[in-house]
UniProtKB/TrEMBL annotation:
It holds the Pfam family Omp85. This is Outer membrane protein assembly factor BamA. The lineage of its organism: Bacteria, Pseudomonadati, Pseudomonadota, Alphaproteobacteria, Hyphomicrobiales. InterPro entries: Bac_surfAg_D15, BamA/TamA_POTRA, D15-like, OM_assembly_BamA, POTRA. Keywords: Cell outer membrane, Membrane, Repeat, Signal, Transmembrane, Transmembrane beta strand. Part of the Bam complex. GO terms for biological process: Gram-negative-bacterium-type cell outer membrane assembly; protein insertion into membrane. The gene is bamA. Part of the outer membrane protein assembly complex, which is involved in assembly and insertion of beta-barrel proteins into the outer membrane. It is found in: Cell outer membrane; Membrane. Its main location: membrane. Belongs to the BamA family. It comes from Aureimonas ureilytica. Residues 1-25 form the signal peptide. GO terms for cellular component: cell outer membrane.
Length: 814
């Protein structure tokens, strides 16, 4: 007790004569207090500094010579100096009119070294940590870096990674900072289970969420990596899924991820309360704003009595009504939905109430978090700008547009008070993600000119240079084919919502049994939205085509005359060989081709086509990659004759309707149809401007397997029509995570009609003749793209058609 009293007395005496405060003491909870009142500081003396200039230290603190300094002022000065990260220790004491500041400088970092890392490269880790070369070393920052590195490993599925940090002396009074990493094994998702779901099975709900159970191809897609933020995002996806399917009372009771250490796998359990399924009751529009005719706005409603309730349809109606009243001059009108549940009949009646909202204007839009994407790329997705009337519905619409760009992991839009009561600041916070892709794909196809084994390498960038532009470069290779493509799209041409771009391509194909083909061309295009679902496009197209003998025969053995083309290269002679189409004795393959019509077109090549095309596209699909509901329809024309050799007008149309036949079992129905006509302008139509059809409209037939033929060689047709019905479904006993689906289908169609044939012989199929088939298919959403195998049996065919019951290739839904 006596010793303690003496210590307290000594401390009090020291405090009366001077004030001493150390940063290290603060961190340990030992603070020296002084009862001295504020004293005048005449001079500030800095001691212990080597690299940091004394004047810099003086400028960093708020105590100035000639002014009084209290204990609180000295305390604040020490804290501020220590917070700069330049010093490992700071002490300040006042002796008379002199404030003495003793500092111990942090060592300078020489090198930042990562050891034991393989799955995450050094460059990525450098961007993760705050400790940097030639910066002062700070132990607290280094420990924070340890946690940041661990978090980086969690994001790639290595939750058991361990990280430690140490320092090693280096030359020049520097210190190297070494992060020792043990990456551990990859943590996977062993199972995802749902509890409380009755309307939809586990397999259906697993398709809604992004997390996947570990499977055969998980190493490619890497969607079996657990992260808490991913689980939260999946919770939101489940809510949207249920809310848009009538379950307005749906809620997630809990979602738990448990790590099984022995298997190093997470097992996720999501417990839900679905509630009842609702339909729309009565739907009305009420307006309290004079001059707005509520009855005239009925056409904007997307929520119809009797339909299944959908939160998305309510949101779409809000946007359409808000735009409609704003276009009538009521910029501050607010549309609010008011729902009235009828629990007895499971209906929700909705009144869309239009009121005069407060007069608030957008003062400015602040963009935060974008390091790559330019500000204007984000701003242009807003239908409001600085000075416009503030409208929450339009702001939420812009948020959805930004999310749809797939440039950002998250998008948050909030408001802050402006400089005046009627001013609002929009704050847009984004978290960017990678927008570049390198793809390598391969497979086997029996469709189109590029039949046989195929492979493709491509580089895609959706946000080129942060300007929101789309660029893709790809090259494809097959056994007898080559193709090269370059595409570029500017989605906001001239600052307007016009998608302009170009495509360049080169294809070489020698897979035909009769002739090879080389095409080089390009397209300039521009598309403009008319409504949210309707788009118009116009394009200029140019291509040059060369056709020739693909077997390298230079001389007709019957006459000794050279052929006009060999491997696409023109020879000196003309195509006047009278024996073209003859056969070598004992051989069934034609030397050139048995069709004089084809021969004439070959002799006329190279052949150029200069055309203008235009199209209207109507698209209401719920998902562009994997549609379950909606319509896709397109009609267009191509007019050739603006220069070049071709003179024709080609009209085509196609449509697909998708409907989810069973929500529980995820059975999707599809009805599709198409038609086309090509007619010459002036001269006769060249044969290669005809339509060549086969398995692309009626499965069960070869490529170019139906339609007019001359001596057994396809010569195309001027008209076609087709229709198809298909049902796709998950395969029983096979995990959906593997991406397989089954299909059953029926096709019907025809290709017919020829331009002037000059009475040539050996022509079949000029008249309409129906072809039909039925079959089954296997669809695989592979990491390389959608692949498909079909088995189809022709039910109606002509004796000159070419049948192919099995087909393999890349799948297209519409």
């Amino acid at each position: 007790m006596a010793a303690g009293s003496k210590l307290l007395s000594a401390l009090s005496a020291a405090a009366l004569s001077s004030t001493v405060l150390t940063a290290s003491a603060v961190t340990m909870g030992l603070v020296t207090l002084s009862e001295a009142e504020a004293a005048t500081v005449n001079r500030i003396e800095v001691r212990g500094n080597q690299r940091v200039d004394a004047d810099t230290v003086r400028n960093l603190i708020d105590i100035k010579p000639g002014r009084n300094a209290s204990d609180a002022d000295v305390d604040a000065a020490v804290t501020k100096l220590f917070s700069t990260g330049l010093f490992s220790d700071v002490r300040a004491r006042q002796q008379g009119g002199v404030l003495i500041v003793d500092v111990s400088e942090n060592q300078i970092v020489g090198d930042v070294i990562f050891q034991g890392n393989d799955k995450i490269k050094n460059e990525q880790l450098v961007a993760t940590v705050q400790t940097a070369t030639r910066a002062p070393y700070n132990a607290a920052t280094a420990q924070a870096d340890v946690e940041a590195i661990k978090a980086a490993y969690v994001r790639i599925g290595r939750s058991d990674a361990t990280v430690s940090v140490r320092t090693a002396p280096a030359e020049g009074n520097r210190v190297n900072v070494v992060f020792d990493i043990q990456e551990g094994d990859r943590t996977r998702i062993g199972g995802i289970n749902f509890v409380g779901n009755n309307a939809f099975g586990d397999s259906r709900l697993k398709e809604v969420i992004a997390l996947r159970e570990s499977g055969l191809f998980s190493f490619l897609q890497r969607n079996d990596i657990y992260a808490e933020d991913r689980l939260r995002a999946d919770e939101e996806a489940l809510r949207r899924f249920y809310f848009n399917r009538g379950f307005a009372d749906f809620r997630i009771v809990s979602s738990v991820a448990e790590l099984e250490p022995t298997q190093n796998k997470y097992f996720i359990t999501i417990t839900v309360d679905e509630g009842e399924r609702y339909t729309y009751g009565t739907v009305n529009i009420d307006s309290t704003v004079p001059g707005i005719d509520a009855q005239a706005l009925q056409s904007q409603l997307k929520t119809k009595p009797g339909d299944t309730y959908s939160a998305e349809k309510v949101e779409e109606t809000l946007v359409d009504l808000t735009n409609a009243v704003a276009n009538q001059g009521y910029a501050f009108a607010q549309v609010t939905p008011r729902g009235n549940r009828d629990f007895a009949n499971n209906t929700i009646s909705i009144d869309y109430v239009i009121d005069q909202g407060p007069r608030a204007y957008v003062e400015r839009i602040e963009i935060r978090g974008n390091t790559k994407t330019r500000d204007y790329v984000i701003r242009r997705e807003f239908d409001v700008s600085e000075g416009d009337a503030f409208n929450q519905v339009l702001v939420q619409r812009a948020k959805k547009r930004l999310e749809a760009l797939r440039f950002f992991k998250t998008v948050n839009v909030s408001t802050a008070p402006g400089s005046q009561p009627d001013r609002v600041v929009l704050v847009v916070q984004v978290d960017e993600q990678s927008t570049g892709e390198f793809s390598v794909g391969g497979g086997y196809t029996t469709s189109g000119e590029n039949s046989g084994p195929v492979a493709e390498v491509g580089i895609t960038e959706r946000n080129f240079l942060g300007r929101g532009q789309f660029v893709k470069v790809s090259a494809g290779f097959g056994e007898n084919t080559r193709n090269y493509n370059l595409s570029f799209t500017e989605p906001y041409f001239l600052g307007r919502r016009l998608a302009a771009g170009f495509d360049l391509y080169r294809t070489e194909n020698s897979s035909s049994s009769a002739y090879d083909i080389k095409r080089t061309g390009g397209t300039l295009r521009i598309a403009a939205p008319i409504t949210e679902n309707l788009t118009a496009q116009i394009a200029y197209n140019y291509k040059e085509e060369t056709f020739g003998d693909n077997r390298g025969l230079t001389t007709n053995p019957f006459t000794g005359f050279p052929y006009a083309f060999v491997n696409g290269q023109a020879l000196a002679s003309t195509c006047g060989d009278p024996t073209i189409g003859g056969r070598l004795p004992g051989l069934s393959a034609p030397l050139y081709t048995l069709s004089p019509i084809i021969n004439k077109a070959i002799c006329d090549s190279p052949y150029s086509t200069s055309s203008v095309s235009y199209a209207l596209t109507y698209n209401t699909l719920d998902n562009q990659r994997d549609p379950r509901n909606g319509v896709f329809a397109q009609v267009g024309q191509e007019v050739a004759g603006l220069g070049g050799d071709a003179r024709f007008i080609r009209t085509t149309g196609r449509a697909s309707y998708f409907s989810l036949l069973s929500e529980e079992y995820d059975v999707i129905g599809q009805l599709s149809g198409g038609a086309g006509n090509v007619s010459a302008i002036g001269d006769d139509l060249r044969v290669f401007d005809n339509f060549f059809k086969g398995q692309d409209i009626v499965r069960g037939f070869k490529y170019q397997g139906i339609g007019p033929r001359q001596n057994g060689v396809a010569i195309g047709g001027t008209n076609y029509a087709n229709a198809s019905a298909e049902m796709t479904f998950p395969l029983p006993l096979i995990s959906r995570d593997l991406g397989f689906r089954g299909a059953a289908f029926a096709d019907a169609g025809s290709l017919w009609g020829l331009d002037n044939t000059d009475g040539q012989l050996g022509i079949q199929g000029e008249e309409f003749a129906l072809r039909a088939s039925a079959g089954v298919g296997l669809i695989w959403a592979s990491p390389f793209g959608p692949l498909r195998v079909n088995y189809a049996v022709p039910l109606a065919k002509e004796n000159y058609d070419k049948v192919q019951e099995f087909s393999f290739g890349f799948s297209s839904r519409f």
